[in-house]
Input
Amino acid sequence: MIRIMKAIVLEEHKLEISFSDGTNGVADLSGLIQSELFARLSDEESFARFSISQNGRVLSWDEALELCADSLYLKVTGKRPQDILPGLKTRV
Output
């Protein structure tokens, strides 16, 4: 199970993230800020006020806004869900 070990705020709504498997990379979340749900994070100061859950499975800005480690891992690596979840079946 992939866990977030560390996340550092970069400019323009990007995070440099380190994962439990040794993967490191940048997650560009600027597209999320365009959605109504995440719009309140458009301010860089608000965006920087996140926390990583104790078990490393969630990055959250409060109890209402969360991103799971798997979705961030996919964003950083460019992998598909079936690449990291071998039991997942894909439809043709």
User: Anything to note?
Assistant: Residues 38 and 65 are 8 Å apart (CA to CA). The domain at 4-84 is CATH 3.30.2020.10 (NE0471 N-terminal domain-like). The chain has a mean pLDDT of 91.
